[in-house]
Amino acid sequence: MMMMMMMMMICVVIIIIIIFIIIIIIIIIIIIIIIIIIIIIIIIIIITIIIIIT
Description:
mainly alpha; 0% strand; 1 helix; transmembrane; membrane; transmembrane helix
């Protein structure tokens, strides 16, 4: 009986760790996407400024 409880606890802990890892990965991906979008916007602004100037 004690063994079963231990196994259950280990399973729960593993599941929680996996969920945390997935959440962290999703957050990192979102941050990368935001950075890429910002860089693209900056590039577009610079290009339009250059076009306007020339």
